Amino acid sequence: MAFIDFILNLAGLLLWLNWRAAKADPLGKPTPATLIGTLRRAEPANAKRWHLPAVLGGLLLLRALFYWQIGSAAGWIGKLDLGGTAVYFHSNLFGQMLLFSIFSFARMFAILYLWLLLLSLLGGPMPTHRLVKMQLGKIDGWPRWIKILLPFAFIAPVWMLASWPFAWLHPKPAMPAAHRIEEALVIALGSYLVWKFLIAALLALHLLNSYIYFGKNPFWNYVNATSQNLLAALKKMLLPLIAAALLLWLTSWLLFWAQLAILLAVGLGGCLVWIYANATAQKFLALPEKIPWRAGKADFAPVAGIALVFLLAGLAGRALVAIYGQLSR
């Protein structure tokens, strides 16, 4: 059932991507003022743009019915893995299966757009990057610091809203609003960890293309350019990333959110002040860039980057799970 859910989520994402891409179709709404505006499709344009979202909604509803009928007979329980925690849905109740269908798709939808946001931050070359811009719209042109903070600023309030139906699924004693905010902040921090899979894929493809020539292709040009930008950013931010992962790991041993908040605020604030106010700090952060990552023709930077990202993500992930577990007590 989990595999079927994954395939149906992919089908839903394709429907959404096609709907978003329909606006960029040069033959969709031609303008007679241009040469391309004189072109017309050979087939009749019967499908409307609203048909795709309608089909997506129907897919989510029909698969909820399917899970309700088949899953209940098989004793299947839907699991929604959210990184710091997991939510379970009983298949013998249609309402829970409908929520599972919606939230399962929303989870994969969020992962896709987090990956697109990372590609936007890396700023690959055209024309391949136009596919990213097509899906993100105006967000692709926003300042970099806003795009970095966007997952945190968006997912935290979304989790606070989603926690109400989740509380209905698993009744608990009344939870104060401050406690919901604390949980939302932890879940929002964990959303950045999904970047590790895209980072690993980009660096692995870059490593493969550095040893095997696949010819001139916009895709490989995009992979190489984004990977080089990614490696440059990792070298520059290596020490702050290690410090942030260790800080999260240390805070996971604390028992109270107040202590966690104070430690995070003092630690991160002090680091930022030290970095931007001290010229020596800039030289200190540049030390990883001086490490010889090549030995002859062998470039170890992609392999080191993959290992580093998964090591830090694993450390931060375990810390966030521990922190969320302490908050849920």
What does this structure look like?
The structure is a single chain. With 329 residues, the chain is mainly α. The chain has one domain. The chain is 69% helix and 4% strand. A two-stranded antiparallel sheet has the order 1-2. It has a two-stranded antiparallel ribbon with strand order 3-4. A hairpin with a 2-residue loop joins strand 3 and strand 4. Helix 1 packs across helix 3 and helix 3 runs antiparallel to helix 5. It is globular, with a radius of gyration of 23 Å.
Quick take:
Helix content is 69%, strand content 4%. By secondary structure, the protein is mostly helical. The chain has one domain.
* Regions with little confidence, pLDDT below 50 for 5+ residues: 255-259
Terminal residue distance: 31 Å
Query: How much helix is in the residues?
Result: 55-70%
Overall pLDDT: 75
List its traits:
329 residues; 4 strands; 12 helices; two-stranded antiparallel sheet; mainly alpha; single chain; two-stranded antiparallel ribbon
